[in-house]
Amino acid sequence: MKYSSTRNTGDSNRLTLDEALLRGIAEDGGLFLPDVLPTFSLDEFSNSKSIRDTARTLLTPFFSGSSLAGMIDEIIAATFGFPIPVSKLDVDDADAWMLELYHGPTAAFKDVGAGFLAACLSRLNSAAESPLTILVATSGDTGGAVAAAFDGKPNIRVVVLFPDGRVSERQQKQLTCWGDNILSLAIKGSFDDCQSTVKAALAEPALRDNYRFSSANSINIGRLLPQSTYYAHASLMHFRATGRKPGFIIPVGNLGNSLACILARDMGLPIGDIVLASNANRLIPDYLRGADWIPRASIQTLASAMDVGNPSNMERLRHMHGDADDLNKIISAVTVSDAQIEQQIVQDQQQLGFATCPHTATATYAYHHLQPEQKKNDWILVATAHPAKFDSIVEPLIGEAVPVPEELNRILSRPSRFTVIEPGLDALSAALLENFPVDAR
């Protein structure tokens, strides 16, 4: 299996999985995709009883030619070490379920991809002479999951860039409470400033060589592959039980989680329609409705992890499936305002009997506003984070405290440390030199 850049600048960008994971982004600035996407028959999953079984079948072709191929069972065990249930929803007498992706160490779906990357990269870099430096831009949840997954890992350092003042208090705690191999940087700007700073660093040859950069954002192919697994497994279990292909409604930010679902469907899994639920950062819905793809400044919303004005994975999606006219045949998208998010959180508490986070509320809102003929289908709504991470938003709306998961409580009890810097390569370079001197590698 080889991986090539979305920008197709020649064979020099055809890499093994090991190389694609370590680099994160192609030298030409493109994103890696497999040269040929494997396709499966449902019979190949006949022995899949657990998500680990499904992961082994789904992911094995991607490890062809990788030094990690013999360790796939260890990597899967490290990635899927917590439950990922699908729960039936008692709503509108309809056929709706919720895929709960918030039972991991940092109570967000990013724990799956971060755990996979940590399991892979720690093994790939175990014998290297110098540390690998993971750069991660985060709008709220990715950085915490990556920091938790790599905390204390030998020969690996993580640099987390998050927008100063634009994440929740508990999200910030998760971004800033780790050990000496984690550097947390609060950027005076938006998530897009964080992401552009990371991309600039990955593209700067001298800096890249000094620090051996890789990325843990969904620009890294290692984030998408394990995330495809929970869509594959959820759809398989549903199809076996009902004989019907479920649709998925997915909160969308940088488009990685949604793309993982699209990849699973492309590989032959029994997935129906895919609806992307956007917040006020509506570039994707507008593009599908005919607007030009022109990146915008991100807007700060209640669903902060979705505050992305230039979703990176659209480059992959367009490379795979074409522009808006073609994409409209395979996905749809809706926009949910802050006011609608607030109303939906209240409604979810009343109708479902439990609170949803602001991101998950975009999915439940989108479900309630499906067209009547669409609602007749089976739908799995994707819950991307635990509402306890957004207590300052959720609790005043529902009028009661949200119980905090035990693992999240442990994180919240740790002290924080971070540095505030300006956006841009110069400020990042200075912070790296101060905290990780090149001659001290």
Please outline the helices and strands:
Layout: E1 3-5, H1 17-23, E2 32-34, H2 51-59, H3 72-79, E3 86-88, E4 96-100, H4 110-124, E5 132-137, H5 142-150, E6 156-163, H6 169-176, E7 182-187, H7 191-202, H8 205-211, E8 213-215, H9 221-242, E9 247-251, H10 256-266, E10 274-278, H11 283-288, H12 314-321, H13 324-327, E11 332-335, H14 338-352, H15 358-368, H16 372-375, E12 379-383, H17 391-398, H18 406-412, E13 419-421, H19 425-435
Parallel strand pairs: 4-12, 5-6, 5-8, 6-7, 7-13, 9-10, 9-12, 10-11
Antiparallel strand pairs: 1-2, 3-4
Q: How does this structure look, described?
A:
With 441 residues, the protein is an alpha/beta fold. It has a domain at 74-108 and 222-408: Rossmann fold, CATH 3.40.50. The protein is 41% helix and 13% strand. The protein has helices at residues 17-23, 51-59, 72-79, 110-124, 142-150, 169-176, 191-202, 205-211, 221-242, 256-266, 283-288, 314-321, 324-327, 338-352, 358-368, 372-375, 391-398, 406-412, 425-435, and strands at residues 3-5, 32-34, 86-88, 96-100, 132-137, 156-163, 182-187, 213-215, 247-251, 274-278, 332-335, 379-383, 419-421. Helix 2 (51-59) crosses helix 9 (221-242).
